[in-house]
Design brief:
Strand order of the largest sheet: 1-2-3-4
Number of strands: 4
Strand content: 25-35%
Structural class: alpha+beta
Radius of gyration: 14 Å
Number of domains: 1
Shape: globular
Helix content: 25-40%
Oligomer: single chain
Order of helices and strands: HEEEHE
Largest sheet: 4 strands, mixed
Number of helices: 2
Amino acid sequence: MFDSKREAKRYQELRLLEQAWEITNLCLQVPFELIPKSKYGMPIRYIADFTYNDGNGQPIVEDAKGVKTPVYRLKRRLMAELNGIEIKET
């Protein structure tokens, strides 16, 4: 189910926070479209490991990242530039 032990461990931590009502609306593997399908190719998506709302109700997009590949860095930048979303890395 998880791509890494780090991601599985983080999920367990987030579930505990959700059970304690410190976060809400925990979701896994949430896709964000960065560039839509066009004549140049298929859509480009970033898939977040987790999304949730923090204790103040603010939406959080989180990635349990071990290695920051060039593709990940590009998608992180596109998320910030195009969607105004900063990815929390754990």
